[in-house]
Amino acid sequence: MSSFSAKVLVRSRKLTSLIAHCCLIHYLLCTLSAMNLRELHRHLVVARRLDEEAIALQRQGVLPAYAPMKGQEAAQVGSAAALDPTRDFAFPTYRELGAAVALGVDLVGYLASHLGNWHGGLYDPMASRFAPFNAVVGGPVTHAVGWAMGARLDGTGGVALTYFGDGASSQGDVHEAMNFAGVYRLPVIFFCQHNGWAISVPSERQVAGGSVAARAEGYGITGRRIDGNDVAEVYEATREAVDRARDGGGPTVLEAMTYRLGPHSTSDDPGRYRPLAEERQRAQDDPLLRSARLIGDEEFLAEAESHAAKVVREVREGLLALGEQPGEEMFSFVYREPTRALLEQQRRWKESADAQ
Amino acid sequence: MSSFSAKVLVRSRKLTSLIAHCCLIHYLLCTLSAMNLRELHRHLVVARRLDEEAIALQRQGVLPAYAPMKGQEAAQVGSAAALDPTRDFAFPTYRELGAAVALGVDLVGYLASHLGNWHGGLYDPMASRFAPFNAVVGGPVTHAVGWAMGARLDGTGGVALTYFGDGASSQGDVHEAMNFAGVYRLPVIFFCQHNGWAISVPSERQVAGGSVAARAEGYGITGRRIDGNDVAEVYEATREAVDRARDGGGPTVLEAMTYRLGPHSTSDDPGRYRPLAEERQRAQDDPLLRSARLIGDEEFLAEAESHAAKVVREVREGLLALGEQPGEEMFSFVYREPTRALLEQQRRWKESADAQ
Amino acid sequence: MPSEMVTERVTERGTEATEFSLQQAINLALCHACEDDDRVLVFGEDVGRLGGVFRVTDGLQAKFGEDRVFDTPLAESAIMGMAVGLALAGWRPVPEIQFDGFSYPALDQIVNQVARMHYRSRGTAPMPITLRLPSFGGIRAPEHHAESLESLFAHVPGLKVVSPSTPGEGYHLLRQAIADPDPVIFLEPKSRYWHREPFDPAAPVPVAPVGTSRIARPGRHATLIAWGAMVSRCLQVAELAAEDGVELEVLDLRWLKPIDAEGLAESVGRTRRAVVVHEAPLTAGLGAEVSALITERCFDTLRAPVQRVTGYDVPYPAGPLEDQYLPGIDRILTAVQTVLEYRRG
Amino acid sequence: MPSEMVTERVTERGTEATEFSLQQAINLALCHACEDDDRVLVFGEDVGRLGGVFRVTDGLQAKFGEDRVFDTPLAESAIMGMAVGLALAGWRPVPEIQFDGFSYPALDQIVNQVARMHYRSRGTAPMPITLRLPSFGGIRAPEHHAESLESLFAHVPGLKVVSPSTPGEGYHLLRQAIADPDPVIFLEPKSRYWHREPFDPAAPVPVAPVGTSRIARPGRHATLIAWGAMVSRCLQVAELAAEDGVELEVLDLRWLKPIDAEGLAESVGRTRRAVVVHEAPLTAGLGAEVSALITERCFDTLRAPVQRVTGYDVPYPAGPLEDQYLPGIDRILTAVQTVLEYRRG
Ligand SMILES: Cc1ncc(C[n+]2csc(CCOP(=O)(O)OP(=O)(O)O)c2C)c(N)n1
Ligand SMILES: Cc1ncc(C[n+]2csc(CCOP(=O)(O)OP(=O)(O)O)c2C)c(N)n1
Ligand SMILES: [Mg+2]
Ligand SMILES: [Mg+2]
Asked: Among residues A185, B295, C262, C289, which is most buried (max CB within 10 A)?
């Protein structure tokens, strides 16, 4: 038995409910066949290196700003990898690079949002099964609920997964969404990355009671707190929730405990609100080191790094090659067909643009 | 021992937590001295008869519309009576006649809202410790949280109590309010009247998980479901929550299980969405009959009825005597001092009013 | 029998002109939209079993089932957020928010999500949502049940906004709104719900493009501009003025976004005088936009400054004060007199 | 050292004119308001320990303690709802919403509660809330961080709305807003936060009543009307025009509710030509109200229709497109040319 499947067994022992035990064999089979820790690790490394590159690009003045996700790679990669991109759909926030990597979203298109080319990014959200970059905290959570209802009406077996943070859990929309999902028993996963901070506010002064997963019970839905830095655990837990949702078992709240190792964004200075020692201490629980240790195959690990370096190079080149969006685009996507008034405004814009 | 204090003992045995047991003596003392089932019953009867009168007045065309609270008298009276009107503050919805009765709010002023004289009613909310009539479902819940913080900052020992329904529990604001109250551990009571219906939607299709009180745990705050048709239980539970809040023990969610015996409002026809049999069956658990049975003193009960009849007569006369509000009032309360533009609009309004 | 409104009417499809109230016409439009496009979904608070507090969705759940027509929990933000998700999943959502004043809790979803998702996604995400919103005053309702939000919605890029003034308009504009690929806010003048007019839903009508206004009554001395319930009030005013030989044109703006600037300029270009009437408060109301558009286009022909007859800058009042708040016939006539008698200083 | 901004400045109270940025001036106004009235409370997301994402509340928590200056959980509706409750308990809340675009989740509380509680309570409930809202664009921010909501707020009876254009204005208008007994929406032009100007907070200033505008630069050929960040842009335009002998008056509207209709009429009565400039989209923007007010009052003297130079009717764009979206110097100059060269047809 590989060290990874051994680990699965250990984790599985933690599951005490009857159902969990009955599903063990099934899970082991899934885990061993469909899933691959090595593949997850490759995603982790791409996410980490690309995140680092984005910070570098911001320092070099290429990106006006960036929201790093360092430390959250396992939570994002593990959850997104558990989705079936032929029928599921993910709803990201503004800090979901790792999920984009695992779902195979066009990464130049994803980072174009931080480049300031287009707010929603330049990737195709419908084809990517990855909703447009969303900067409203809590905003996309109800979308996932609606999408899940649509998928169920169509009988596609599709599952929606929505990302949100510990800070976002305070928003009314998150409650409304969980309640709707509970009432209709929809195939939706509320995936909270509890990374300890919402900008400067620690989750102790944000999340009354301390746990977002614990809220699930109040809606009669399954809630589970997981180790968000353990990519296998995240993957398994999400897989379990996806399977349950597909089978008509309703929604799940997953709370991945992790830590935002970097600043909130490149404009932020965490030194103003948290001790450097905390960051240093938390940095030791590095999701990449954990999966690397489990894999233990130095050759593979080196290969993963060089693969990531190649991706980073390509994405960097792609970003640098991106021109500015043509001004016409301001007008052409507002409606399916521009209105007469908008065409007139576009005409005037063109005149003044040409005059310069 | 009177039958009522015996009942208190019985109820008390239901309390299993250590704290509850320690408080028993204290409660019995409070209960026997400060509280009086007879007084509560008098409020119940006033509320019931006035509610009936309001429906009659609506049928007679005096009130344009009315939202009956028949069946919810015990929940409202029991909770409001547990407040200290010298330092606490209640935040009603649009269906809180019973609470207004128990708090001694000017009832003509309260019903003036249904009469269509003034949306917020004509009573003085600050002096009455009863916020203006609020028609936004869930709207006042966060106000109670802010008020509670203000009271704590002032060290008055004041407690805020906010009313809301099973339907309102779906609103994002209710979640935000509970989370804030939990984070700051504020002296506020979230008093849910779970009356089974939000207009035509039964609470099974409204409240995922079935219980609003169960949500409290997710915020790390005390939650308790109580028999909302038992005025003594409601009083005691609220008293307990008020005492805890005053002592710095933080917020409480109380879920009073009751039933809206009438239509949502006089414009509503419950026959369209619920069987008459359900109403009939639920009507048997009448909060007034329950307290009357406990009191058992026919003479007193008759006296309570004649007291209520007197109040009803006075309120009816008061309502009929109310003139229309002068048109100037449209302008004079918008700001503390009317703006120049508003004075100009008032002048024009006066011209056109006088011309007619 | 109200609970059979849809089934009753449905049998009439393609028969002959009957008297319809606005409420019935909208009910019928919803029914036909559901029949013609099985991606249409109708949902909101109390729209299912009850058929809506105004019975506008009456009978639809019985006819189309609980999947297509359903009640939601009491949360307006989630209603609109769910609409976004359903649209992304390829459905055509027709949510209702029960009353105008309760659209505020949903405004974040409406402005930050519904109105922008198509733009944000560079035209890839479909967003054919029609939000039905019983609107405006005039029925002595409680607080928050008589609000006019059109200027707010009209300010938001990505939204379209429309309000019908008659049963026939209600039917056709709602069908047009639901068929439209963009999000449309459909403001139903609730004070007109019960007003009946003959109307044949099967009669072929020339489809006016989105954003075109309608001359409800032609005239040549001045143009009254209105929408929703104020159209019939302006028609009354025109009737009265005609007795004095004053021929007022009544322009039913219908689409409040995009606004028919050309139609306004055409009418006022002829009449050279304009009065705009709305229920919303004066300041930053849509009357200001109408006034500015007209002035920008007809500065030379205008014989008097455009007059605005509107609600006052006060919260919508209760009871009998609502008649004093709303633009009354006298106030409109006074404004007409002002534009007719205006002489440049 | 930014973290000592308040303490540093506080020692200067009543000393002499120094260079202040708008961000510092507002910080100082908050500090003095907290000193002068111990019922003032400052709260919002990240305003405490961090001192706000723009450092506008920097140092306040250290100086006034965690009771007076505190962080809230991330929920805008509850922030405003809490403000209502605190006001009812006799406090003077000065909440911050972190960015313009995130005020939508709080709009229900702002419109249905904050703006109406005084009215609803027949003048008995005090509601002296000042909502600070970093606003407008120009800093290449992410989506929702560059919105202009003034026409929406100005439409709501019961609210007052103000936006400063300079550090000195920022200081005095915020102190006036906090002292005002009514709810005030205080729109801070974030693109001007770092612009420094000499200003002496202790210098005695004649207090202009709420609702009065300010002539930022006198002129006689046309009036440019603006607020917030657009005032400095209009001053640039006036500078350029002056080179060609065109003397433009720049009117800083400041109060967007109540609007200074008299001030507008006075200025345009003299110059006979007006251009209004704002960042918000054109349709139903506050420029329409300004245009209508001017036309209503100056119809006879106006030599050309009031021109509006505004954002387009599109969602606020990203990156370099923002310069194309915002009213630029050239677009404003073109409008000036239009009003100057206009000849009646
Ligand atoms: C509705 C809303 N309010 C405020 C903001 C500003 N803001 C952006 S991120 C953020 C903190 C979010 O914290 P959390 O949800 O924990 O996510 P994290 O940043 O930790 O990934 C805030 C306050 C926003 N984007 N949306
Ligand atoms: C925000 C909001 N949405 C919708 C309404 C319309 N409405 C009034 S009462 C009601 C049902 C409320 O149900 P519940 O909270 O259970 O209180 P109850 O009426 O049972 O007392 C609805 C939908 C409203 N007043 N406010
Ligand atoms: Mg976080
Ligand atoms: Mg209820």
From this structure: C289
pTM (predicted TM-score): 0.95
For residue C277, give the DSSP letter: E
Residue C274: strand, helix, or coil: strand
- Phi-psi domain of A79 (left: phi exceeds 0; alpha: psi -120 through 50; beta: other): alpha
**ipTM given for this complex:** 0.95
3-state SS string for D97-158: CCCHHHCHHHHHHHHHHHCCHHHHCCCCCCCCCEEEEEECCCCCCCCCCCCCCHHHHHCCCC
pLDDT at C108 over 80: yes
Q: Which residues of A touch C84 (CB under 8 A)?
A: 142-143, 146
The H-or-E segment that residue A251 falls in is none
- Write the DSSP assignment of A177-214 as a string of letters: HHHHHHHHT-SEEEEEEE-SEETTEEGGGTSTTS-STT
- Mean of per-residue pLDDT scores for chain A: 92
Residue D204 neighbours by CB under 8 Å, 6+ apart? none
Q: How many CB atoms lie within 10 A of CB C245?
A: 7
When pLDDT is cut at 50, 70 and 90, the band that residue D17 belongs to is low
Radius of gyration (Cα) for chain C, nearest Å? 20
Interchain pair C151, D154: CB under 8 A = no
pLDDT tens digits along B152-176:
999 999 999 999 999 999 999 999 9
Q: Are D313 and A109 in contact (CB under 8 A)?
A: no
Predicted confidence (pLDDT) at residue A34 exceeds the cutoff of 80: no
**Alpha carbon of residue C25 to chain centroid:** 14
The tokens for D278 are 């704002």
Write down the pLDDT at residue A3: 43
Q: What is the pLDDT of residue C96?
A: 98
Q: Are strands B197-198 and B201-202 parallel, antiparallel or unpaired?
A: antiparallel
Nearest beta carbon to residue C75 from set B170, B267, B352 = B170
Distances, alpha carbon A92 to alpha carbons A190, C126, D98, in Å: 11, 18, 21
Of C71, C313, C330, the CB nearest to B352: C330
- What pLDDT does residue B356 have? 75
CB D43 within 8 A of CB D95: yes
Interface residue of D42, D97, D117, D121 to substitute, partner B, most B CBs within 10 Å:
D121
